[in-house]
Write a structure and sequence with these properties.
This protein is mainly α. It has helices spanning 11-21, 42-63, 68-83, 85-109, 119-142. Helices cover 65% and strands 0% of the residues. It starts with 10 loop residues before the first helix and ends in an 8-residue tail after the last helix.
Amino acid sequence: GKMNTDLPRAQDYEYNRRVRAAGFRIYQYPELKIEYVPRPTPFALAKQYYGNGYWKTAVFREFGDFPVTPNVCGFGLITLSLLTVPLWLLALGLYLVTIHFVALYSLRKAEYRAKLRHIPGTVLALLIMHLSFGLGLFHGTMSSPNEYNI
């Protein structure tokens, strides 16, 4: 079938789930070039990723499954922060170190020559994307996504 255009977001994710469930594979061609215009502000990026996480739960409901890991990790980190500060700081430190390595790796793989000055912005963008998507996913899991409550 075609993409479910009734979904405000995550149409591609829903379509890809049905394609894989039917036994097909999805290929990406490296020759295919697209142009992407990034969001102009950190708030716009946060809003985009929050909506992506929120609406992805509509697809999870359709397929009768929910991602356990993000919600368990989120609840675990909150609980951990309430119980013990040193473990919370260790988890946060490991996350930040990992994000920095991902930023360096991503900038190294980029087509343009990224400079060291791009690292803080890349780290900030990754933090915003993770936190916003996670909050949207949590909100969507706790509610029923529809066009009126976001």
